[in-house]
Amino acid sequence: MEMTHAPHIQQPRHPRHRETVRRALGGTIEFRHFTGFDQLFAPHAHDYPVIGLVREGHRIMECNRTRYRLGPGQLLALNAGDAHGCVQEGATPLVYDSLALLDFHDCPPFAGPIVEDAEAIALMEEAVDLMQAAAGKLTALWPDRPVYTGTIPAGADGSFFLESTGSEQTEGLDRFRHRKARFRVRYFLDSGDAGAFAQWAETMFASFRRLEAAEGAHTRTVRLTGRKAQVAEDGKSCQFTFDVDLYYREEPQTTGEVMEYLKQEETWKRQ
User: How many angstroms separate the CA atoms of 26 and 147, rounded?
Assistant: First the structure.
């Protein structure tokens, strides 16, 4: 990654973009998806940590008075207060995902802004892709019903609210890992939905057996487990919960890491 002291960033022409916002874990995490951006992000800072992933396009980023060249697959980790901005490089508009940690005051500082960890990049892609896949499926089933993933607006009757409610990871044999991500879909009943819960639940059970999430140029199909439908106690909304089970194998340590570990073990034994 090339780094130099950054000059003043100039404003490009022809801004065209689209931005979507979704929130999870009770509003403590905010996902943003940017597509078609070719204009300047003026220098600014957040009062919370942000993790970002470049999907398409190239950018010249200035962070804390240092310049970085960004391209597809680059993961960023910005601490609260990091002054940063970026400008378009080349003809391909920016496609970018960000995850803001809005209510994690004890979060340890990142060693960013550039992250080269392949597993961390995969986790970021996974979280964003699953939210987009679930929201897309709801829109395909009920195109006239809004799907909210940020905050629930006033007068949300007849609309959906999608959120991530947590995740856990367990260790298996031979570096295999099992990660379980939990989601909840809430549907706010309107005046014409009286007695419609049974039909809605059957549609959800039939349609939410699997999710097809984007994975680069391909599509990954994941099976949904723990599915459950119920009516809220106040009778004004229905909810459908499900888990996404993901399995992967942890990459082995590099030779350098193993040698460093052996050196530490030898030193400990001598002491």
Answer: 16
Question: For the chain, which domains are there?
Answer: 3-116 (2.60.120.10), 121-249 (3.30.2000.10)
SS3 195: coil
For residue 148, the Cα-to-chain-centroid distance in whole angstroms is 16
Helix (H) or strand (E) holding 230: strand 218-231
As a whole number of angstroms, the distance between CA 261 and CA 96 comes to 37
If DSSP states are collapsed to H, E and C, what string results for 82-125?
A: CCEEEEEECCCCEEEEEEEECCCCCCCCCCCCEECCHHHHHHHH
Spatial neighbors of 97 by CB under 8 A, at least 6 apart, are: 31, 32, 33, 34, 52, 53, 55, 124, 125, 128
Confidence of residue 240 (pLDDT cuts 50, 70, 90): very high
Identify the pLDDT of residue 106: 74
CA end-to-end span of the chain? 40
In whole angstroms, give the CA distance from residue 5 to residue 76: 18
Contact 202, 238 (CB under 8 A): no
Quote the pTM value: 0.56
Rounded to the nearest 10 degrees, how much is the dihedral formed by the CA atoms of 188, 193, 194, 195?
-100
Q: Are strands 41-44 and 50-56 parallel, antiparallel or unpaired?
A: unpaired
Strand order in the sheet with 147-148: 147-148, 160-171, 176-188, 237-249, 218-231, 210-215
